[in-house]
Design goal:
mainly alpha, 2 strands
Length: 170
Amino acid sequence: MFSIFSPKSPDDEMKKAQALFEKVIASKSDSREARSLRIRMGLLCRAHLDKSFVTGAEQMASWQELAALAIANGKEKPPAPEPSVFQKIKSGENEIYVYLPEEYAHAAHLLGGRYQSADIPALQAIDTMQGLANQICLYELRLSEPFQVLQFLRDELSQSPDNQSTSGVA
């Protein structure tokens, strides 16, 4: 009877997140409110990209262990982990679902996995992920400046004494 007091289902929250993304992308307005909404969506997309990268790396590490165990036991390797177009992101006091189209979510997840398995070095991971962020920010959201992704990895590289050549990465 009082649906405002019942918690919303994750499916409803995911549908809402996807609808919001699509609404922001489709908006042709350049009002202050529309620009503000695009900036907020850009920040959420950045968080989604970062989290997808980390999730891809974590899932790849787990998958590699399972695959090695399966091979050692003469069994088939398990299927590779699959990315999600939704990520749960902390926003203020709450956690909210954020949506990114499959092409972006899959690419970020795959890059995290490739980085984890040492297929690509950190600088290449950063550059490629920044390319994804640029695509979303500049072309999808029509922002004048893209948001910077993988700040945690950039910071880690700048602190590493054996990576002096990475000090220009920003």
